[in-house]
Design a protein that fits this description.
With 315 residues, this protein is mostly helical. It contains 18 helices and no strands.
Length: 315
């Protein structure tokens, strides 16, 4: 899994969630010069992507058993941090030539030459090693399931070149934790609630990353890459409503399948309201509005997590 950098944006902030790297953030102020390019590759100053990668695993860990294992929650957090960084670095590696042609991303470490491609690959290997160390603490089925996540991670950066739906592939990648969390919590099994959480998460990613992609639609069109923002155009708001409805449907079915208690439902109403507010307030021609709505999805994911936790208390 990689992590939206806003989700996991390949070149120039295009479809998937990377955004430009700030030149005046804490990375420049607090880290030694030699570490700064690697911190930027891993998007350490952009935690929203880690949240969006981490939360589906939290949902599943909480729904699979009456009380989520704190150790697993911590391990999933570390894993999300490492795998989001690996995915971001891989995206920048694949897109380094395109990044160099876009003003907003020309200063990125690989595009600018601050990090060589060889060193970037070594940095990816280091981050993957951290993820592997965590994965090997799970049961055999979970190890296999986690290893399979590398397939969509590797393929994702190329999707914007061949399909108008790279956001769907981001959803496949970013919500893998919904499957892995259930498996890890149950010692190597998959249940329908996990599959339903995963399906709802894919629709959710299509929702938030389509909003994010609207920030870069002009650059995308000029450079020649594809996104759902360009595909939907003026019909985007209707598509967002459809994605929200699908996400809510699958998540509701997941909670019913797991026989969640009544306290979950007031929070699910809050999740639905959050979707509604985003659809109503987003201005697709205002990058700041798109960015704010995109980032607010961390709170939506936390609301769903809280709904599951409260529901488990009242089963």
């Amino acid at each position: 899994m990689n992590g939206s950098d806003e989700a996991s944006r390949p070149a120039g902030g295009r479809s998937g969630g990377f955004t430009d790297i700030r030149a005046d953030g804490w990375v420049e102020r607090r880290l030694p010069a030699g570490l700064r390019p690697y911190a930027k590759l891993a998007r350490l100053d952009r935690p929203i992507g880690t949240w969006l990668l981490y939360l589906p695993g939290c949902w599943s860990l909480a729904l699979a058993v009456p009380h989520p294992d704190i150790t697993l929650l911590v391990l999933f957090g570390i894993g999300a941090f490492a795998m989001r960084g690996a995915g971001c670095t891989w995206n920048d590696y694949v897109d380094r030539d395109i990044d160099a042609r876009v003003t907003r991303t020309a200063g990125r470490p690989l595009a600018s030459g601050a990090v060589t491609p060889r060193r970037a690959l070594l940095f990816i290997a280091l981050q993957l090693a951290i993820g592997l160390a965590i994965l090997l603490s799970f049961d055999g089925f979970s190890i296999l399931l986690g290893a399979l996540a590398l397939v969509p991670i590797a393929a994702y950066p190329f999707m914007k070149r061949i399909t108008w739906w790279p956001q769907a592939f981001l959803g496949i990648t970013f919500n893998w934790g919904a499957l892995l969390g259930w498996s890890a919590a149950t010692g190597g099994s998959l249940g329908w609630p996990a599959v339903l959480l995963y399906a709802g998460g894919i629709a959710w990613t299509l929702f938030y990353d389509t909003i994010y992609a609207h920030q870069d639609k002009e650059d995308d069109a000029l450079v020649g890459v594809k996104s759902t923002a360009l595909l939907f155009g003026d019909a985007t708001r209707l598509w967002l409503i459809a994605f929200a409805v699908v996400a809510l449907l699958f998540w509701t079915l997941a909670l019913f399948a797991a026989q969640t208690g009544w306290l979950a439902w007031p929070l699910m109403v809050a999740v639905a309201a959050h979707f509604f507010v985003q659809v109503r307030r987003v201005d697709f021609d205002d990058p700041a509005s798109c960015h704010a709505r995109f980032r607010s999805n961390r709170n939506l994911g936390l609301l769903l997590f809280l709904a599951i936790l409260l529901g488990q208390l009242t089963r």
